[in-house]
Amino acid sequence: MMGTTHQTDTLIVGGGVIGCAIAYELAKAGVDVIVLEKETLGSQSTRAGAGMLGAQVEMTAPGPMYELGVKSRALFPKLREELLDISGIDMELHTPGIFRIAVDEDDRAALLERQRWQTECGQRAVWFEDEDLRGEMGDLVSPRYGALYLPDDHQVRNPQLLLALAASAKRLGVRIFEHTPMMGFLQEHGAVAGVKTADGVIRADRVIVAAGAWSGLLARQLGLDLPVFPVKGQSFLLDSYSPPTPFTIYTHGCYILPKKNGQVYVGATEEQQAGFDRRPNLRSLASLSTQAVELLPSLGDLPFSTPLAGLRPGSRDGMPYLGSVPGIDGLYVASGHFRNGVLLSAITGLVMAELLTGKETSVDLEAFSLKRAHVFG
């Protein structure tokens, strides 16, 4: 790409699970797409994430975010079949469900209230007292206050989902440029007309910023105050030929996900003050290890595999920004998904493709509009 100029209908800046999901859906609609990634696809928060499709376990109250998560979760079985058919790569959808373990009486009361409103919203949420939980899982867990079982909250393996999306998008004609950092925006007559890179120029009718925790930094180049910021998360993988439970176990500050490849994912911290430092550290991993073994004692005998660390794209209200940037033609944002990038990838890809092709969106995007952010600095 040395000194060359490329032309496309839509340029997506960011090659994580959000950018690749949008590229895939746009390519299905016949749109010419380029994905620009400064490192390798999925090398940031996608690589380090747990892969939970926690539409119920992650949401503490009904509202637009809960509805977005439920709609997205429902898309994954069909999406899995589509991607498997096109690419031959399985995202490893794992469906036994999630147990959210209560840690004290206040947590128990909050989870029982969550069971009430989620059931009223038409979702399955089943309460297990301690003896019921032990009957289901043996003595693997050490509960004291009961647990909420969410049978329809599932999980995938992040690297496989990313590979399936990227390979399918490429099969449909998407061009992917890795190791190509963006150097600045092209602007003509007040509109964004593409980007500049060290290797040349990419002209585009529309540019979507889907750069995760780095989205706010890129927006500053246009004088925009997009409040997306890094929240560091650390986790680790354990090796196991046969994980001790098929269920995802989740509680305050710790969750345990058995993967179909035999590994067990243990996560994850939330560190607001780490900035853009992605290195794992001993204190956080030691704290996670202690919590995990207390929750599921048999994990203590499993061999340690890999530490992981990534930067989640946080937002002030915990909800993503999806849509066009007010006042700048040709510029769109899909970022700020925080802990729910994998869960929301399916619906984000769908609604952004609908928006850019002039269709009515499957979800009302008003609650996720950039108007709430007051982006102009």
TrEMBL record:
<dbReference type="InterPro" id="IPR036188">
    <property type="entry name" value="FAD/NAD-bd_sf"/>
</dbReference>
<dbReference type="GO" id="GO:0005737">
    <property type="term" value="C:cytoplasm"/>
</dbReference>
<dbReference type="Pfam" id="PF01266">
    <property type="entry name" value="DAO"/>
</dbReference>
<dbReference type="GO" id="GO:0009229">
    <property type="term" value="P:thiamine diphosphate biosynthetic process"/>
</dbReference>
<comment type="pathway">
    <text>Cofactor biosynthesis; thiamine diphosphate biosynthesis.</text>
</comment>
<dbReference type="GO" id="GO:0050660">
    <property type="term" value="F:flavin adenine dinucleotide binding"/>
</dbReference>
<keyword id="KW-0560">Oxidoreductase</keyword>
<keyword id="KW-0784">Thiamine biosynthesis</keyword>
<dbReference type="GO" id="GO:0009228">
    <property type="term" value="P:thiamine biosynthetic process"/>
</dbReference>
<protein>
    <recommendedName>
        <fullName>glycine oxidase</fullName>
        <ecNumber>1.4.3.19</ecNumber>
    </recommendedName>
</protein>
<feature type="domain" description="FAD dependent oxidoreductase">
    <location>
        <begin position="9"/>
        <end position="355"/>
    </location>
</feature>
<dbReference type="InterPro" id="IPR006076">
    <property type="entry name" value="FAD-dep_OxRdtase"/>
</dbReference>
<dbReference type="GO" id="GO:0043799">
    <property type="term" value="F:glycine oxidase activity"/>
</dbReference>
<dbReference type="InterPro" id="IPR012727">
    <property type="entry name" value="Gly_oxidase_ThiO"/>
</dbReference>
